[in-house]
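Just curious: can you write whichever protein you like plus the matching structure tokens?

***
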Amino acid sequence: MERRTFLQRIGSILAVLGMTEAEWLSLGNRYYQALAQPSPRKLALLIGINQYPKIPALSGCLTDVELQRELLIHRFGFQRSDILTLTEEQASREFIEAAFLDHLDKQAKPSDVVVFHFSGYGSRVKLETSPDIRQNALVSANFIQSTQNEKIVNYILEETLLLLLRSLPTEQVTAVLDTSYYAPNTVLGLKIRALQESVDVKLAVEEIDFLQQLKTQKLPNTPLVLAATSEPKQPAREGLFAGFSAGLFTYALTQYLWEFTPANTIQVSLSHVENSLSKLGSKQQPANLENLSPQKREALNSPPQGKGAGGLGLPDSMIGAEGAVTAIEEDGKTVHLWLAGLLPQVLLYYGVNSRFTLATTTEELVLRSRTGLTAKAQISQTEGANSLQIGQLIQEAVRVLPRNINLTIALDTGLERIERVDATSAFAAFPHISTVVVEEKPADYVFGKLQEIPSRYGLFSLGGELIPNTTGEVGEAVKLAAQRLAPKLSTLLAAKLWRLTENQGSSRLALKATLEIINNISPRVVMQRETVRAFKTETPIKKSVQTPLIASLPTLIVPIGSRMQYRVENQSDRPVYLIVLGLNNNHTAIALYSWEIPQEPNTEDTKPLLKEVVIAPGETLTLPQTNAASEWVISGPAFFCEQQLIFSTTPFTATIAALNAAKYSSAEQRPIAPLLNSLDIAQVLLQDLHKTEMNGTATDSYILDVNNWASFSFSFQVV
């Protein structure tokens, strides 16, 4: 629908709709099923507000709208004319509610799919009818309505929105809310989408009246509501990426839905999105299954039954992608691409000459330039230009990454000018470390002061979480604080490098890895990772019998003292080699080691050596081997752990040599042990994966082929 037409019709809209409490469910798999459901029509209303009067602007809400719109069009078959967007000053309370009634309620039929999205500030407000209760609310673009005697706010109550969603005449209703409601007094790192509550404001009478009218109506459905956070005081954050800002939740969710086909269970989807959020520096937990009945929770935890993905009769031909062709230039060979399916941490470094295949043909597109989420590419074979069409999905074939990658430290705005000067000077002395000011350029971590003790400095995630063991003494000089961080920065840069290998969605190797807790009955699965494009037709690979998923998901929790193992299945026709690297809950580097038994065990000078971990075709390998001498037991303190399982069809010759060159004590000769030279290992590992030479590609690049490597990421909370 044209926005002009919509605005002309606003005056005639005044419908009254209905209510009860909505169940808040998250995430990916049910959203995917709802969007892909065969439907006569698919309608969407997308709201994004960056600029608000008299309060600090947000940066990523308009990008969120674009991310959702392109996903709906290219991935799920929405028509552009059926997607209405309201942005900036257009997104007033009156316009949003009128658009909901006119564009969604009046047009939707019982079998249609409806999507509502909101990105902007949230807040809390006290109602005169319930003075002791604070209500969650969405902050509209015209939220201020001051008069001489009182301050009126034009919020849209969360309750109002839920009633509107429930009253639509179709059961296929999904809402995505990339906002939060509680704003702390001080914010470190990424922007928070929450406006501090004002005690002296009143909600607009029109909103209260509208809510009361809605409560009189019947409620034909229960919508799916995907929230950016699951806890009342948990902040929804937005990040600065390569040339654009976006909500972390929207970006993680839409990226997952581009890259993957439907998961077996909702937990698999949840773990992917939460895993992505943790890499973006946020502890957001976008899932809350606590409000579900036991029957519904069991249904969500069970693999889908019946024909088609998710048992909903979806087409089996739905395929994952890293993006789509959005335009074709007059020469017929140059195309414009939308690359929202690439992982955020990979997109920043995605290099010229990276290659994509068209999902429905064998033609290759060669990347020539990239700006933010858009890029230009050329078809590799002139005779294939006739096969180019707008809307075609593209899949990663070759990833080109620069060899010279820095760790970027943002200097918090709470630092004094002289502190920022000293910190910049100190960090400049380190190789591969650069500094920026918070919110000016993309960064990996934040250097700032502890809020409780401002005379102490520390290193923080972009979400404001203190990195363990990075704080100094009271009164420590800035330069000394920066210099003290040198070993930690080296480790964090190593982790950044091995994260760039992640490619579960695009790898063509048929592999599956399961993280399990070992007990006396049977292993319990914490999470699973599996390649989805092992074959060009994306025929599902044969499923093995699965052990039950641990009940505490979607927050992936592993108690201290747990005995752990990986179960790795090679379902390809080639042997694969495996390296496991990670950060433990102290944010120190670790690796999985496979020690060779010395030929002469009684000789003191005999040094144990590492051997390759190789998995034959069709073989399942358990790591580490489950015996008393090689157990992997999770120790404290409570924090996040992250591990990367990296596979290659050729041996990790240089990596194993570098590992053997380190001086390990006998106490460190355990299956999961400290990684002493983490940055060196990460660099030689990328060199081991660098197997392809391509004409025109710079020699200072790593070239990785999806046919020859796979990399899975596992993150979990230790408690």
